[in-house]
Amino acid sequence: MRGIYLLILSVLLVGCGNTSNQQEAVPDLEGTYQITQVGDSRISDPELTMNFDGEEERMSGYAGCNNFSASFQQNESSVGFTRPISTKMYCEGKMEIEDQLFSLLDSISSVRMSNGQVELYSANNKTLITLRKQE
Is the dihedral angle over the CA atoms 47, 105, 95, 65 positive or is it negative? Predict the structure, then answer.
């Protein structure tokens, strides 16, 4: 009888203990994030940011030259953005990433957490923008 209890306990512990292959929780976008990738371009400038206010459903940020904002809606892993509005300054050498960022926001349909970063995906599961939460 004792052997049966030990066997059942072992099965339960093994079944509950291994969660490394499970998807991470759906990220709560609240807070400020550094933009680390836009499309295929890695971003090293820590000033490029996105700030999410879940209560107001507003996202704002700095794209390297201009400040911008948009509305967003998140339902579990689904997320969508309105077309962003921004200031209209011109900055030599910084407009390409900014233009790409603004155009990709229209294509985002889901969000996931991967390796401690937030990844924003298109409908066909292509990573469009990668973010790292600022401390």
Answer: negative
